[in-house]
TrEMBL record:
Mg(2+) binds at D447, T449, D854, D858. Keywords: ATP-binding, Golgi apparatus, Lipid transport, Magnesium, Membrane, Metal-binding, Nucleotide-binding, Translocase, Transmembrane, Transmembrane helix, Transport. Residues 491-514 are annotated as: Disordered. This is Phospholipid-transporting ATPase. Its EC number is 7.6.2.1. It is a multi-pass membrane protein. GO terms for biological process: endocytosis; phospholipid translocation; retrograde vesicle-mediated transport, Golgi to endoplasmic reticulum. Belongs to the cation transport ATPase (P-type) (TC 3.A.3) family. Type IV subfamily. It comes from the Eukaryota. The active site is at D447. Its cofactor is Mg(2+). Its main location: Golgi. Gene3D superfamilies: Calcium-transporting ATPase, cytoplasmic domain N, Calcium-transporting ATPase, cytoplasmic transduction domain A, Calcium-transporting ATPase, transmembrane domain, HAD superfamily/HAD-like. It comes from Electrophorus electricus (Electric eel).
Length: 1116
């Protein structure tokens, strides 16, 4: 793990030197740090200054910021969190635990029974559109302001709220069912009698002793006390187990956890209740890689005190990978590490909704201006203020209330279409309010483990310097191993005393044999089979693992053997050695055993193990073969660490580069033979260094390095982390669409870099700038940023610790530089850091972000992004349940964005503008009517005509626009560059809005003036002519807007026209039926409709001919 402690340079720096860094330009060279310190104060500050807050700021939106701050402060006061405290948890003594702790159940619901209605109403009326219509509807209760019937205002508003509440209720019920499914999982709890009692995880409280079997997910944080079944470590003094943490930190490595030493020595599990002991645990914290606590047993003399660290903990959202563990719960519910690192879910609002909200404000402003003009033309006579409000209500159809319900119903239709798409099976739309966001994305932040990769390591290459073996030649390696073990075995099987003589006499010729390919392959495979931390596990007949002799031969051949390790790379290597004939069959803390192809068991004593660290980048092991007494030091590690350790060679660097370009993770394997005297000398120096009180780590490292000299290079291995299906073409598709891809992972830097190369996230021609992992202060961050700024078209790789330091001092500069990169890889990221990166992109770029992941550690990132996508995979359903969209494979994201994202955005943009056009055209007719008739605030159409116009007469054709598409799905996937236009927001902008407004004014004026000019006798004829022409104009405008016809669109057109014609027989209250039946009515309606629509059709034809859009060029 990378240290977070500040280096000595920063430790002894004065405050003046630190403050000077604020004044430095970011491009200052390293020499400037030494030679130009006096110039710092004369340089401009590289910081974004705070904007002055005055009256202009207050009027231009500052009031909203202040109101929001006050509301947030009030909410924080009302919902003040309980202070997190350290706690003392007694074993088996619930009466001593008086403190109340959070419930342990999972809860993803936004509301409860009491807050549902107020919460939904608040979410609706915080939008200007709905709040405006609420005020207008309430104004109709005032007699002097009443314009028409109450139902013409309250019915649409009530319908919109009802549809919204039903949709939210359905979503809440689904969340409740998912939570109930997770909380209904049964676990066992240890009782005083020593047996187990079945219980639900939500009932867990600190002090309980849950029993977690192999393969189960932990639901709370606890301390590891003992193993109920300890077959894997039979005969060893250490009680340990492996856990999988991929849902917590994204790492697929299995972590070794050790039980508390005091409790693992108890004779029986039931004795946990007979002792007087307690656990002192620190207050709950965010850091998942550290823990401080103590275990105290008081019934001993003297009392036993044992310190607890991270290796004794079992965090929630991790999975027990071996054995059945018994622990004591210390943190539950909101206090667990996984929940503390998970941000609260928020109500996401799409960018299109925000744009429409701005347009409705512009419409309201136009409505008020129009009303003021009407009152001014009246001369402000009489109760002009009342007339002003009446005009505002009269022109309220400028802002159509059906806009909200049409868009909401359209969103539901898009979700249904997405889930029914056979090309992306298993896709689920969990949030039905933001499907348009899929078409506006600029940044895609993806997890690595389980998202881009399959969590499966496969051995691909073995290189010995002069010969290389790939997947198609592994049978040659197997034959060499069989050959190397068959010859000694046949000699030994003679059973005579003379059989040993040839083997001894053959030793002088050993150097010649060692140079053969068979011998070199055998040595390399043997080194790979021995140099690791892998433990074989037998799920059944585990007791037979202790057998010896001939019985061991049978038991170790068990077909359901599995391997446990802290690294998936090591498991892949050991599986490969098994496939070529050398099998790891048993291992404990002091020895390991290999089985040869002929069934012989080779036993090795483990003398020393030097584990892998991120600083050393290598691991080593010293073993002694019992049959021969040979002592060998094996080591494997990264090429950068091993190049200076192995003997001189001319092929290692070149072959490492070749494998890296193929996306393989390379390991260099070497060995060194030690005599008994050499090892004894090393052991004495090593033990002496380990007992040192000062600089222990440095002295131990120095002793180990004394062995790491002139080691014999055996081989170079290449392991591939298998990618998900079609990851490379999908990433290429997204890049061509203009989407910038960032990979955020909790894995190691080397692993993340390899996957970035193999997945083509970083192109072969691109350079990679690796940010120094040990950046710990401002000076180092400054130097690294300067070095990075000098590079162009370069991918960035940065660790979580370095990122945290840079964001602390140079947030704006780092984000600005990173956004210019073609790709960014952040490794060793905590869940909180992933969400922080998402929020930084949202704040600094104002672009839409999408986060995709499959583990519990991705939930915060998914919920923070504008659009969250979860993959339901091997890491569980936690990310899938918390996401807005759930898919089954990463490759589905291409079609989800290119096809469904495009269609959803284009359709909603067309639908929203057309609904506004439908309201503006009738308001324009009302304005013409009022201006001609002495500016009277009298409605042109009343009662059912207004309700019918917005519903049965035009609703079906207008809503059928949700089936329109400008580009076929195959074309959208073939030319992803079309997606770039969507991110510019040109389909719905003030420009397109003004075009529709001009069309509405033109058509409204033509319809009203035409009806007034052509009518003969009675005013009722004006109403009949203008309203019929209005309905026909809307139907023709839908046909003008449609780009790809669907049979449902045609049906909707004829259905609406039929409904209107059929309703004429019942509209005698509004129309003169005898006049409608005449030919004069028909030709007048046709002429007015033709004049209002024909010019628009001509303009559309000319525009398509001389200035066609890009998608129409491709379609043709």
């Amino acid at each position: 793990d990378l240290t977070r402690a500040p280096c000595s340079l920063c430790r002894y720096q004065s405050e003046d030197d630190i403050s000077n860094l604020d004044e430095m330009p970011l491009m200052m060279s390293e020499e400037a740090f030494e030679n130009e310190e006096s110039d710092y104060h004369t340089l401009p500050r590289a910081r974004v200054g705070h904007r002055r807050r005055g009256l202009g700021w207050f009027l231009c939106g500052g009031w909203k910021v202040l109101c929001g701050s006050c509301c947030d402060c009030l909410l924080r006061t009302c919902r003040r969190r309980k202070e997190l405290k350290a706690r003392t948890v007694w074993l088996g003594c619930p009466e001593k635990c008086e403190e109340k702790y959070p419930k342990n159940g999972i809860k993803n619901q936004k509301y409860n029974i009491l807050t549902f209605v107020p919460g939904v109403l608040y979410q609706q009326f915080k939008f200007f559109l709905n709040l405006y219509f609420l005020v207008v509807a309430c104004s109709q209760f005032v007699p002097s302001l009443k314009i028409g019937y109450l139902y013409t205002y309250w019915a649409p508003l009530g319908f919109v709220l009802a549809v919204t509440m039903v949709r939210e209720a359905v979503d809440e019920v689904r969340r409740h069912r998912r939570d109930k499914e997770m909380n209904s999982q049964l676990y066992s709890k240890l009782t005083v009698r020593g047996d187990s009692l079945t219980d639900y995880s939500p009932r867990w409280q600190p002090r309980g002793q849950p029993v977690i079997p192999h393969g189960y997910c932990l639901m709370s944080d606890g301390i590891f006390l003992n193993l109920l079944v300890n077959s894997e470590h039979a005969g060893s003094d250490t009680c340990a187990c492996f856990i999988r943490t991929d849902q917590l930190d994204g790492e697929t490595d299995w972590k070794l956890k050790v039980a508390v030493a005091c409790t693992q020595r108890l004779p029986a599990v039931g004795d946990l209740f007979s002792i007087t002991a307690y656990v002192y645990a620190q207050q709950p914290e965010l850091d998942i890689h550290s823990f401080e606590g103590n275990f105290t047993r008081e019934d001993c003399d003297p009392p036993v005190h044992e310190s607890l660290s991270i290796e004794n903990t079992l965090w929630a959202s991790t999975v027990v990978a071996s054995g059945t563990v018994i622990g004591v719960v210390i943190y539950t519910g909101k206090e667990t590490r996984s929940v503390l690192n998970t941000s609260q879910s928020k109500n996401k609002v799409g960018l299109l909704d925000l744009e429409l909200n701005r347009l409705t404000k512009a419409l309201f402003l136009a409505q008020v201006v129009l009303s003021v003009v009407m009152v001014a033309l009246q001369g402000f006579v009489g109760p002009w203020f009342r007339n002003l409000f009446r005009f505002v209500v009269l022109f309220s159809y400028i802002i159509p209330i059906s806009l909200r319900v049409n868009l909401d119903m359209g969103k539901s239709a898009y979700g249904w279409i997405i889930m029914k798409d056979e090309n992306i099976p298993g896709t689920v739309v969990r949030t039905s309010t933001i499907p348009e966001e899929l078409g506006r994305l600029v940044y895609l932040l993806t997890d690595k483990t389980g998202t881009l990769t399959q969590n499966e390591m496969v051995f691909k290459r073995l290189h010995l310097g002069t010969v290389s073996y790939g997947t198609d030649t592994m049978d040659e390696v197997q034959s060499h191993i069989v050959q190397s073990h068959a010859q000694p075995c046949s000699v030994a099987s003679s059973g005579t005393g003379a059989s040993a003589t040839p083997s001894h006499t053959a030793t002088p010729s050993a150097p010649k044999v060692r140079k053969s390919v068979v011998s070199r392959v055998h040595e390399a495979v043997k080194a790979i089979a021995l140099c690791h931390n892998v433990t074989p596990v037998y799920e059944t007949r585990t007791g037979m693992a202790e057998a010896e002799g001939t019985e061991a031969d049978q038991d170790f051949g068990d077909h359901n053997r599995t391997y446990q390790a802290s690294s998936p790379d090591e498991v892949a290597l050991v599986r490969w050695t098994e496939s070529v004939g050398l099998t790891l069959v048993n291992r404990d803390l002091t020895s390991l055993q290999l089985k040869t192809p002929v069934g012989q068991i080779l036993t090795f004593t483990i003398l020393q193990i030097f584990p892998f660290t991120s600083e050393s980048k290598r691991m080593g092991i010293i073993v002694k073969e019992e049959a021969t007494g040979e002592i060998t030091f094996y080591m494997k590690g990264a090429d950068v660490a091993m190049a200076s350790i192995v003997q001189y060679n001319d092929w290692l660097e070149e072959e490492c580069g070749n494998m890296a370009r193929e996306g393989l993770r390379t390991l260099v394997v070497a060995k060194k033979s030690l005599s008994e005297e050499q090892y004894q000398d090393f052991e004495s120096r090593y033990n002496q260094a380990r007992l040192s009180l000062y600089d222990r780590a440095l002295k131990v490292a120095a002793v180990v390095e004394s062995l790491e000299r002139e080691m014999e290079l055996l081989c170079l291995t290449g392991v591939e982390d298998q990618l998900q299906t079609d990851v490379r073409p999908t990433l290429e598709l997204l890049r061509n669409a203009g989407i910038k891809i960032w990979m955020l992972t909790g894995d190691k830097l080397e692993t993340a870099t390899c996957i970035a190369k193999s997945s083509r996230l970083v192109a072969r021609s691109q350079d990679i700038h690796v940010f120094r992992p040990q950046v710990s202060n401002r000076v180092e961050a400054h130097l690294e940023l300067n070095a990075f700024r000098r590079k162009h078209d370069c991918a960035l790789v940065i660790s979580g610790d370095s990122l945290e330091v840079c964001l602390r001092y140079y947030e704006h500069e780092l984000v600005e530089l990173a956004c210019q990169c073609p790709a960014v890889v952040c490794c060793r990221c905590s869940p909180t850091q992933k969400a922080q990166i998402v929020r930084l992109l949202q704040q600094h770029t104002a672009n839409r972000t999408c986060a995709i992941g499959d583990g519990g550690n991705d939930v915060s990132m998914i919920q923070a992004a504008d659009c969250g996508i979860g993959i339901e995979g091997k890491e569980g359903r936690q990310a899938s349940l918390a996401a807005d969209f759930s898919i089954t494979q990463f490759k589905h994201i291409g079609r989800l964005l290119m096809v469904h994202g495009r269609n959803s955005y284009k359709r909603s943009a067309a639908l929203g503008q057309f609904v506004m056009h439908r309201g503006m055209i009738i308001s324009a007719m009302q304005a013409v009517f009022s201006s001609i008739f002495y500016f009277a605030s009298v409605p042109l159409y009343q009662g059912f005509l207004m309700v019918g116009y917005a519903t049965i007469y035009t609703m079906f054709p207008v809503f059928s626009l949700v089936l329109d598409q400008d580009v076929k799905p195959e074309m959208a996937l073939l030319y992803p560059e079309l997606y770039k236009d969507l991110t510019k927001g040109r389909s719905l902008s003030f420009k397109t809005f003004f075009i529709w407004a001009l069309i509405s004014v033109y058509q409204g004026g033509i319809l009203m003036y035409g009806a007034l000019v052509l009518f003969d006798q009675e005013f009722v004829h004006v109403v009949a002519i203008s309203f019929t022409a209005l309905v026909l104009t809307e139907l023709l405008m839908v046909a003008l807007t449609v780009r790809t016809w669907h049979w449902l669109m045609v049906m909707a057109e004829f259905l609406s026209l039929g409904c209107y014609l059929a309703s004429l027989a019942f509209l005698n209250e509004y129309f003169d039926l005898s006049f409608i039946a005449t030919g004069a009515f028909l030709w007048k309606v046709c002429v007015i409709t033709l004049v209002s629509c024909l010019p628009l059709y001509i303009i559309k034809y000319l525009k398509r001919k001389f200035s066609p859009p890009s998608y129409s060029k491709l379609s043709s």
